[in-house]
């Protein structure tokens, strides 16, 4: 690393700052320190809390529910912040919670409302 490039330095537990290079600016041209905070997504927090409260490891949850372990790992590390409908429903089923909780955590409350309207409205020409 050259003297003019910015480098990450420890700031406090759980965060780091970008230290300016020799010319006073960071790699992106900023001239001040900015804390880097490792934050979980709402979905990650929800799933993590569920696993803690049930005492389950990722592998145990996935074996019991059939949920994809790779996807669960990405959810917990906040790499994935949204889900398709099928995965959201499967996760809700595995956690034994209403799908609306999952849809709200991923910012898609409107999808939950749309699904509820769709499945509560009789389709013309279908036998009931």
Polypeptide structure, described:
- By secondary structure, this protein is mostly helical.
- The chain has two domains: 7-37, no CATH class; 42-119, 434 Repressor (Amino-terminal Domain).
- The chain is 46% helix and 11% strand.
- It is built from six helices and three strands.
- The protein has helices at 42-54, 58-65, 69-76, 85-95, 99-105, 109-120; strands spanning 7-12, 15-19, 35-37.
- Strands 1-2-3 form a three-stranded antiparallel sheet, with no helix packed on it.
- It is globular.
- It starts with 6 loop residues before the first strand and ends in an 8-residue tail after the last helix.
Query: How many strand elements?
Result: 3
**CATH homology-level superfamily of the largest domain:** lambda repressor-like DNA-binding domains
CATH class of the largest domain: Mainly Alpha
The number of helical runs is: 6
Uncertain spans: 1-13, 15-21
Radius of gyration: 21 Å
Average residue-wise pLDDT: 81
CATH architecture of the largest domain: Orthogonal Bundle
How far apart are the termini? 70 Å
What is the CATH fold-level name of the largest domain?
Answer: 434 Repressor (Amino-terminal Domain)
Q: Spatial order of the strands in the main sheet?
A: 1-2-3
What share of residues is helical? 40-55%
The outline comes out as globular
The main pleated sheet reads as: 3 strands, antiparallel
Kindly give the count of domains.
Answer: 2
Structural class: mainly alpha
Query: What order do the helices and strands follow?
Result: EEEHHHHHH
């Amino acid at each position: 690393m050259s003297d003019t490039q910015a480098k990450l330095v420890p700031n406090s537990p759980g965060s780091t700052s970008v230290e300016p290079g020799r010319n006073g600016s960071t790699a992106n041209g900023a001239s001040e320190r900015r804390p880097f905070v490792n934050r979980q997504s709402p979905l990650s927090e929800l799933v993590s809390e569920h696993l803690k409260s049930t005492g389950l490891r990722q592998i145990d949850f996935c074996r019991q529910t059939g949920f994809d372990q790779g996807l669960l790992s990405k959810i917990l590390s906040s790499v994935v912040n949204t889900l398709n409908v099928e995965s959201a429903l499967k996760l809700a089923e595995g956690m034994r919670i209403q799908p609306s909780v999952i849809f709200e955590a991923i910012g898609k409350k409107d999808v939950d409302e749309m699904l509820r309207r769709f499945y509560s409205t009789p389709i013309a020409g279908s036998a009931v």
